[in-house]
């Protein structure tokens, strides 16, 4: 059974129940809001959102289209997409890492024996920003990681201006990251995944 299907907090959330104007019968529609792992078929939609979100700010994307496909083929269970009526509006892509801190190799490698989840990118479609969707998606993603037996912590790197956002999500600063992309420098942050036994007992894991 796929990991997501067993987790009540990641099952589709039906925000409304459309009815036809006559007879009060339900119409067959897509779920108003759904969270699920991404697949390689979602790669183009993912890249379109990511490109618009990052190119104007940083001049480059954390993941290019071939790298998105690479991770969605290797470890789709470490991704999470938020869909509104079938349309992707926000996503996270992660992979496993097996060292204490991130290195340049972490940008492209998935280490199946690793216990750290490297969050490569979180992005929200431009028409859905400033609505708290990024925070909600990250919260759901971290809840999901707590149900994965191999996950011990989440790691990410970000630019300075994003540090307050991730701190509000519960991440702590580890210090400057050794990874650079062109002239960009990053701060490395982490969030513990283990040590939440009560939450796991009450989350359906």
From TrEMBL:
<keyword id="KW-0090">Biological rhythms</keyword>
<keyword id="KW-0808">Transferase</keyword>
<keyword id="KW-0012">Acyltransferase</keyword>
<dbReference type="InterPro" id="IPR016181">
    <property type="entry name" value="Acyl_CoA_acyltransferase"/>
</dbReference>
<keyword id="KW-0963">Cytoplasm</keyword>
<dbReference type="GO" id="GO:0030187">
    <property type="term" value="P:melatonin biosynthetic process"/>
</dbReference>
<dbReference type="InterPro" id="IPR051635">
    <property type="entry name" value="SNAT-like"/>
</dbReference>
<protein>
    <recommendedName>
        <fullName>Serotonin N-acetyltransferase</fullName>
        <ecNumber>2.3.1.87</ecNumber>
    </recommendedName>
</protein>
<dbReference type="InterPro" id="IPR000182">
    <property type="entry name" value="GNAT_dom"/>
</dbReference>
<dbReference type="Pfam" id="PF00583">
    <property type="entry name" value="Acetyltransf_1"/>
</dbReference>
<comment type="similarity">
    <text>Belongs to the acetyltransferase family. AANAT subfamily.</text>
</comment>
<feature type="domain" description="N-acetyltransferase">
    <location>
        <begin position="33"/>
        <end position="194"/>
    </location>
</feature>
<keyword id="KW-0471">Melatonin biosynthesis</keyword>
<keyword id="KW-0597">Phosphoprotein</keyword>
<dbReference type="GO" id="GO:0007623">
    <property type="term" value="P:circadian rhythm"/>
</dbReference>
<dbReference type="GO" id="GO:0004059">
    <property type="term" value="F:aralkylamine N-acetyltransferase activity"/>
</dbReference>
<dbReference type="GO" id="GO:0009416">
    <property type="term" value="P:response to light stimulus"/>
</dbReference>
<comment type="pathway">
    <text>Aromatic compound metabolism; melatonin biosynthesis; melatonin from serotonin: step 1/2.</text>
</comment>
<dbReference type="GO" id="GO:0005737">
    <property type="term" value="C:cytoplasm"/>
</dbReference>
